UniProtKB/TrEMBL annotation:
Residues 1-29, 110-177 are annotated as: Disordered. This is Zn(2)-C6 fungal-type domain-containing protein. Residues 35-64 form the Zn(2)-C6 fungal-type domain. It comes from Somion occarium. Signal peptide: none annotated.
Length: 729
């Protein structure tokens, strides 16, 4: 039966809503009770100290373990007023132990041990903590100083379509030079393999690039209609010789369908522009785009910035719903880093930043041709999915990320286009960068929620992006990166490689037990899955070590790097380091979880902890401390604008790992892990609360972590082991 609401209570709520936000109302009805257990039982006022004055006077134990009694359970969703949240956040931040900012461990490799990083000349953490540089809140990419950021609001006259998308309408060819060392049989095998490759790009009836695999039958049909032939080619620069070249003629979209003409459904650019600017003022849009290019862009550098700036100022480009949706999506993402009240649906609520525009994004996605697999469409859907994760709309977020993957596959972004002379250098690089951003976010989201990945490395053969900055890439080709200038793409490629290792951790064994006990499914699973993963992930850890050693010194987490005044260098090095520690933590957490599971299955004594279990716990514990410590330092320097919601995922995983370590500390040799783990947990909750002002999922993760700490009465002398139920934020 719903609760009865009186007229007086309605009037009270109306008056409360009419108060200006600047007055910061203190409504005691919704204040979270922090009274200790003794004061709550005796129903006396508690000063909420730790311990409180009443318990000190009576020389009684002051505890906060008993669950509070709620008089109005239906009001529990209205957790606390803004004042109460900020007061609690300040308390948590003040309680963060200073020693955690220079983490008490400096773990390097699987065999590392605890060290004390006190000297800034030997510790990267201490070097960063002691630096006095004033870092800028954003760094525009170099191209932004050479190309103006100008929206098309001043002119909307019809213009000639840009040549950017002209290449997919042209012909394409595939050349396979003969290897003189090959035998005729080997050459025939190679030619057959390339002719019937599983990657097949073609053009649909509107001229958009599409991809279909081998089972579609298109590669076989292509061979049978005699579009391949052997030609003789002479090398003009060398002695005359015969070369067998397997070549394709240059087909157009109507070769197979001679009576069909490629035609696209157009949209009026001015109509779309006016729709977007009715929600986002042009001057605000410029500010948000610049904010994105100066901060979040470095996390997902899929744009070729000069080409994007040209498209941004091109009125005709706004006739593509995918491009307009991309602009709206980056405005949503950048709205979290701008204090302009126009970005918020509710000026007093930081979590409402960009929410109205997120609805506008949905409207743009319903326009004609909005579902075409253009690169801008893929990018827009991916960015919207990342924004939705931070907004706490997880079902919508996963739907958008899966749509980005589907569009990537439909457009063939996951397959190499080297054999097709279709894309110029800029288009080819943007396609590669875009796919790998989709790939890494699939892994990032799935590892946090324990979901299976939606695309795997075995489904792809696209190469890594060129380690060359935008200034050296033109439509005519890719120039060499100056040796004295480290490419920004180098850090991104290293990040992609780390996420490839993460896929192996996500690749869990298939279930051997089915609910209906089907013998067929059990047998089919053992035959068809082809699953192989070493139980202890040794090969994966070796690959992780190899990637870590190969990171260029410019991006390495070293004393020199962390003392630099280059904010991009510092933040990217910290990002790579935290990602490496995150993956290493997952590997070692998996190892000791396998041991714990085996003990439960065999009903072995859980207090008997061998060297393997203790070592796995130590390393997982050390990695978790490194993650928390690194993000604490970044937050203390005010550099979180260069990061995103992935920080919340890493902190949550580190917190859960520390709780698991605390609950599994049975042997005496593991007791030294308890104190730093408790300090780090407190710090972790404080950081998650700090993020809650802009990320809803940060508040949920903080609440969850705090409940972990409350429901687990662990002290330094006698750990008590209880069952925890792990929920996702």
């Amino acid at each position: 039966m719903p609760p009865v609401t009186t007229k007086e209570s309605k009037e009270d709520e109306q008056q409360q809503e009419q108060k200006p936000s600047s007055s910061v109302p203190k409504d005691r009805r919704f204040k979270l009770s922090r009274a200790c257990d003794r004061c709550r039982r005796r129903r006396i006022k508690c000063d909420e100290g730790h311990p409180c004055q009443s318990c000190l006077t009576s020389n009684s134990a002051c505890t906060f373990e008993e669950p509070g009694k709620r008089t109005h359970p239906h009001k529990s969703k209205r957790a606390a007023t803004l004042e109460d949240r900020m007061h609690h956040l300040e308390t948590l931040i003040q309680a963060i132990p200073p020693a955690v900012f220079a983490a008490g461990v400096n773990f390097k490799g699987a065999g590392g041990g605890p060290q004390s990083p006190a000297d800034p000349s030997t510790s990267a953490h201490a070097s960063f903590a002691s630096s006095t540089h004033t870092y800028p809140p954003g760094v525009p990419p170099p191209s932004l100083s050479n190309y103006p950021l100008m929206n098309p609001s001043t002119f909307f006259a019809p213009t000639k379509p840009s040549s950017r998308h002209s290449s997919p309408h042209g012909g394409y060819s595939m050349h396979i030079p003969a290897n003189p060392t090959m035998s005729p049989d080997q050459l025939a095998d190679e030619a057959s393999r390339m002719s019937l490759a599983a990657s097949y790009l073609y053009f649909d009836d509107e001229g958009y690039t599409r991809w279909q695999g081998e089972t579609s039958g298109l590669p076989l049909l292509d061979l049978l209609v005699e579009r391949h032939k052997v030609v003789t080619k002479q090398d003009p620069d060398g002695p005359l010789q015969q070369q067998n070249i397997l070549a394709m003629d240059h087909p157009s979209v109507n070769d197979w369908f001679p009576d069909r003409t490629a035609r696209r459904t157009g949209n009026n650019p001015e109509v779309i522009w006016k729709l977007v600017t009715s929600f986002i003022a042009p001057d605000l849009m410029d500010s948000l785009v610049q904010c994105y290019l100066s901060t979040s862009y470095y996390l997902m550098p899929f744009l070729h910035v000069p080409s994007f700036l040209a498209d941004y100022g091109n009125p005709q480009k706004w006739g593509e719903p995918g491009f307009a949706a991309f602009i709206v999506s980056i405005c949503c993402l950048a709205s979290r880093h701008i204090d302009d009240p126009r970005v918020r649906a509710d000026p007093a609520d930081g979590n409402s930043a960009g929410t109205v525009w997120f609805d506008l994004f949905g409207r743009l996605r319903s326009l004609p041709t909005a579902d075409r697999p253009t690169v801008y469409t893929v990018q827009s859907v991916l960015i919207a999915g990342v924004y939705a994760i931070g907004l706490g709309k997880l079902s919508k977020a996963f739907a958008l990320i899966s749509e980005a993957i589907t569009l990537s596959i439909d457009g063939g972004l996951h397959r190499s286009s080297d054999a097709y002379d279709v894309f110029d250098s800029i288009e080819d690089e943007v396609r590669k960068r875009t796919f790998w951003c989709v790939y890494l976010w699939d892994k990032q989201a799935c590892v946090h929620f324990g979901r299976p990945p939606m695309i795997r490395l075995r489904d792809c053969d696209v190469g890594e992006p060129a380690i060359v900055d935008d200034e050296y890439i033109t439509r005519d080709g890719i120039s060499l990166q100056p040796p004295e200038q480290e490419s920004r793409m180098s850090a991104f490629v290293d990040c992609v490689r780390l996420f490839v290792v993460m896929e192996a951790i996500l690749d869990v064994p298939p279930s051997r037990h089915f609910g209906d006990g089907s013998p067929f499914l059990t047998r089919a699973t053992s035959i068809l899955t082809g699953f192989r993963r070493h139980k202890e992930l040794r090969e994966e850890e070796a690959l992780l070590d190899e990637i870590s050693r190969s990171i260029p010194p410019h991006w390495a987490h070293s004393v020199e790097t962390m003392a630099s005044d280059d904010v991009i260098r510092v933040t990217q090095a910290e990002r790579l380091y935290c990602l490496e520690q995150f993956i290493r933590m997952l590997i070692h957490r998996h190892r000791f979880s396998e041991i714990v599971a085996e003990k439960v299955f065999t009903q072995a004594n859980y207090e008997d902890q061998g060297d393997a279990e203790c070592e796995a716990m130590r390393v997982a514990h050390a990695c978790a401390l490194q993650i928390v410590s690194s993000h604490l330092q970044i937050a203390a320097k005010g550099l979180m604008t260069y990061y995103g919601v992935h920080v919340i995922h890493q902190l949550t995983a580190a917190g859960r790992t520390l709780v698991a370590v605390l609950l599994n500390c049975h042997s005496e040799q593991l007791r030294p892990l308890i104190s730093p783990a408790l300090d780090a947990l407190r710090s972790c909750v404080g950081l998650l609360r700090r993020f809650s002002g802009r990320y809803v999922c940060g508040l949920r993760s903080g609440d969850l972590m705090e409940e972990f700490c409350r429901s687990t009465p662990i002290n330094h002398s006698k750990p008590v082991y209880s069952n925890l139920f792990f929920f996702s934020c």
